[in-house]
TrEMBL record, chains A, B:
Family listed: Belongs to the ROK (NagC/XylR) family.
Highest taxon above the source species: Bacteria
Organism annotation: Streptomyces erythrogriseus
InterPro entries in the record: ATPase_NBD (IPR043129), ROK (IPR000600), ROK_cs (IPR049874), ROK_glcA (IPR004654)
CDD domains xref list: ASKHA_NBD_ROK_SgGLK-like
Database matches in PANTHER family: GLUCOKINASE, ROK (REPRESSOR, ORF, KINASE) FAMILY
Short name of any one Pfam family annotated for the protein: ROK
EC class of the enzyme, as a word: transferase
Record EC number: 2.7.1.2
Keywords assigned: ATP-binding, Kinase, Nucleotide-binding, Transferase
Name of the protein described by the UniProt record: Glucokinase
């Protein structure tokens, strides 16, 4: 009973058919329509991808993991920094056009769900997921339930202030965690050092032939793996801030496990090692309490897509059950009506 | 069906008989035994208070709200900064001596429970409680359930880092939130200004006749109410940091309501006003999301005691039900046995 999962990020849309064990049967990609375009253009992209996949698969439900703030009813996208949605009733619009059950959730929530079902956080009863991409996404899973808060937007860890008066964040504040521990932070620091023609940056300057704008996150990870000292240090800095932030979350939430995902987590031990060290060094009450595990996510960039598909499966199952109940109710009524028509025979 | 609630803080132990509506029928106080004394001395104090109250009341259960970290089974106090408990099986020890059901919880959890049942947070489905005392206590209540995390110590908001490399905290870290927003922070700042003989501190210096060590939190609140500019500013500073911290918690947890309690909350609008302003100014995504209410706690310093008593009531009820089931089971067995003895008569 395959379902489709769709991950909508700031730059690309990923759509895939996923089976009940989390296996991806087919995958498509598209560019995310420009922020200046109307919300309908993004909808069109989603509908096209689903119809395309439906040609070859018997799609029973569609799940969307969106890089935006989804309301408590999981219908409206309240706000999406990289998309044109503002209080957009995405679920209802898509359900109208797709004729199958549609589920909408935040992309970090769906990634966390996937890691809990099939990945690094399998079976953890108190899981916190951190996705380090361009920014920081977050999710809280308790006993297999995504915690959304009162209005649906819990888990926005990236906008907790870690440095008073620190770097400006597009969210409107200063010193947000994601300004210190994310792909964007990594690239900003590298470009700054390169632009200042710092001796520590000569390696990467040479690598991009002086085109500082070409410096990217994956490039920094690659150079760090090859032993570039500056790139190793930058990942250490990001990892250190990651550790401080998860120590803060441990103080507040005391989870059993932190799963670290997102693009930057590809740096693996170059990032997670320093993060673990800083976590252990900053955890309040260390030595007097059990400590959460800090592990790297296992499902890679497809986690959001797989999670969205799996969450949609749950919704579809609920729909089917409700439908079955309706049918049964109707059949009971029919029986009853028939009995009343011919009382002598059946009563 | 009255139960006893006991609030154990760093300086005093409060014990009270509380009815099912949260009314305090009688209240006793004692000094908290010195940290250097053995854990048994604190137990003795608790037992004495309960026996004293039992002389005049039919006590059915005892609830303890302790200023310490309580494990997930709510039996052991893992760690208490102001008490001698280290991994102390408090519940079992007291249950052995008191012969009624005993419940142990963190003091901020029990205060939050009281505010949710009888106070400012009545019926809120996503409540976060902040108690500003000497430090910061915290609790998360969701649909009337205290969230404890995996190991029982969730809600330690006071030890989230808000200033990198900031003030030293006895927890072992630097820059913890409670070093900037608490009674201790308030007193530290006032004493520092007074010790520096700052002109802004002349009012309070005169008030304590130069004995800077006499400056206390309630005194600062009192002087602020009388219009002392420095004391007003200090409460604003504490309030501002309170607002920043709850904006961080709103990013992570998205609650419907923050309840601000603890001794410092007696300053009321002198504290909560600046806190609300800073919260609104620091909330990520402001303008694109519904905002949590920020309200002052209603039950005052007795909240922890009332909450502990009420939580104990729940436990006692569960005990009674289990006992009734045991009795019923026994009666069924008796009937059955009798039937077997005289089959002719009853079958």
């Amino acid at each position: 009973m395959p379902t489709v999962g769709i991950d909508i990020g700031g730059t690309k849309v990923m759509a895939g058919v996923v089976d009940a064990d989390g296996n991806i049967l087919e995958k498509l990609r598209a560019e995310t329509p420009d922020k200046s375009k109307s919300p309908k253009v993004v909808e069109d992209t989603i509908v096209e991808l689903v119809l395309d996949l439906s040609d070859r698969h018997d799609v029973h439900a569609v799940g969307i993991g969106a890089a935006g703030w989804v309301d408590a009813d999981r219908n409206r996208v309240l706000f999406a920094p990289h998309l044109s949605w503002r209080n957009e009733p995405l679920r209802d619009r898509l359900a109208g056009r797709l004729a199958v059950p549609v589920l909408v959730d935040n992309d970090a929530n769906s990634a966390a769900w996937a890691e809990w079902r099939f990945g690094a956080g399998r079976g953890e009863d108190n899981l916190v997921m951190i996705t380090l991409g361009t920014g920081i996404g977050g999710a809280i899973l308790e006993d297999g339930q995504v915690k959304r808060g009162k209005y649906g937007v819990a888990g926005e860890f990236g906008h907790m202030q870690v440095v008073p008066g620190g770097h400006r964040c597009p969210c409107g504040n200063r010193g947000c965690w994601e300004q210190y521990s994310s792909g964007n932070a990594l690239v900003r620091e590298a470009r700054e050092l390169a632009a200042a023609d710092s001796p520590v940056a000569y390696g990467i300057i040479e690598h991009v032939k002086g085109n500082i704008g070409d410096i990217s996150g994956p490039m920094i990870t690659e150079l760090a793996r090859e032993g570039d000292a500056m790139c190793i240090e930058l990942l250490q800095d990001i990892g250190q801030w990651l550790g401080v932030g998860i120590a803060n979350l441990a103080a507040a939430l005391d989870p059993s496990c932190f799963v670290i995902g997102g693009g930057v987590s590809a740096a693996d031990d170059l990032l997670i090692g320093p993060a673990r060290d800083a976590f252990k060094r900053h955890l309040t009450g260390r030595g007097y309490r059990p400590e959460a595990r800090v592990v790297r996510a296992q499902l890679g960039p497809e986690a959001g897509m797989v999670g969205a598909a799996d969450l949609a499966r749950l919704v579809a199952r609920r729909f089917r059950r409700a439908k079955r109940r309706r049918v049964e109710r109707y059949e009971r009524y029919e029986k009853f009506a028939e009995a009343r028509r011919s009382p002598s025979e059946s009563l």
